[in-house]
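ok trying this again, last paste got cut off
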Amino acid sequence: MQEEPRQVSQVRLLLVDDDPDFAKIFQISLMADKRISFAIETAQTLEAALKILQEKTFQLILLDLGLPDSQGLETFEKIVMAHPEIACVILSGTDDEALSLEAVKKGAQDYVVKGEARGEMLARILSYALERHHQKQQMEELNERLEKLSFLDPLTQLLNRRGLQRMLSRELEISGREGANLSVILLDLDNFKPINDTFGHAVGDIVLQEISKILKATIRTTDYVSRVGGDEFIILLPNTRLAEGIHFSERIRLAISQTTVVVAGGQAVKATASLGVMNVNKRTASVDSLLEETHAALAKSKQSGKNRVSAGEGWKPRSDSVVDTLRAGSCFRSVKQPILDLLTEKTVGYEFLSRTNIGGFEMPADFFNFSMENNILSMVDQRCLEIALEAARGVFPASEKHVNLFPSTMAKLLPEQFSKLFPPVTLCGAYCVEVSEQQILGDPSYLVPVVQELRRRKISVAIDDVGFGRSCLESLILLQPDVIKLDKRLVMNISHDKNQKEMLRRLLAVVESLHTKIIAEGIESREDLETLKELGVQYGQGFLWGQPA
């Protein structure tokens, strides 16, 4: 016995027929059935129907194939091509049922012969048609999800081998046709087995997921990243020369080595990775051959002490030249991002951010991590401060100027250096030194004297990146910052995440007693802006108002 169709509160139906008398009879007939409510609109031509469908939403179309401006199956095909999401039932005469059956074969849900179905029967036919269309859509969505899942690694949601093979074949075809470069990185985590043995496989899985997040955050939109084995990953880089692939690999290696995964019980797990890089050619047309070729480069990294990047024959590391360029200091420039009053959206200050012209090391996360590893962080950090302050001198004095410093650099600055670096407030306006909470390691009391010296000179202090990662009230209480800057990971997409919103609400309640200015970073949408205003956050910055320039 056939089940009753799902009951819909009201069905919006568009009747497309050039006979106004039939349209009236049809509407009266449907109104006779009280179980299903139909909201009916009519159109007498295909052109009029397509216009109405652009302006309004419908669940069902009842379509006559013989219209003044369109005849036969072409009428149905044009409707379906424009609106495949709407169920369609054909209106048929007694002499053209064969044509209606053809339309059903091409995707119409059913057909109704004029004059033969009325009242309850007509309502039932239309209701079943709507149900069948709904089931068809669900099946298509399910098949699409299953198809997608067949290409993904279930733990990390990265491409699996099958997914990588599809992308590799496509990119090799493009590379051969256009003569473009194609590079590949094989990444293997160092000493991953001891992590599993010490903390258990559940923690090992968390580490793999965190590494996957780093890879997804680092790659370009045109790149592909895949998990091909336990702790092995492959990154495919279209339109990338080998030298660029080397730089890119360094960025990934540094990002992983600087990441700490905090697991249950507060234990910190650190991981490093070894990477091998090479060009892809027709010999490496399969994932297996790709692994075979890149394993030689990866082995060099492992044999050289791990946490390294190696490439094929003929390549020599250029890290020394990057260090020399950073030491020279001429590669830096400063860009500024406005800080706004969220209620008026007027600019009240600027944050000055550093960039370099070194390929692969343009952004702070890249060149600062590299500098830290090569023991030149303080030198580079101070040079970036000088460049930022130089740029800030050209900004209107009424705007507060925010600059950044690592805690380690900040602690080493002498009082006479402050006098040299920062001009008097009366000449150039107010300054604010930002220090990231994530970079304050251990007891923050070593920063208290330098914070006091800054305040004596009427320079504000901000704790940056608060609310995510290693958040600690100790830093906020001891240093008593003038400004707290909310980490962008706590801000982005907050309008769509109830847990995130509640987390921020609680954080704001905790820091309210400190009487500090709150600035939200990473505002990228109007929805997030409205949520922040609702929570009482007064100041903010982000890509919603443009890129730093």
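PB: full thing came through this time. The chain has three domains: 11-149, 161-317, 322-545.
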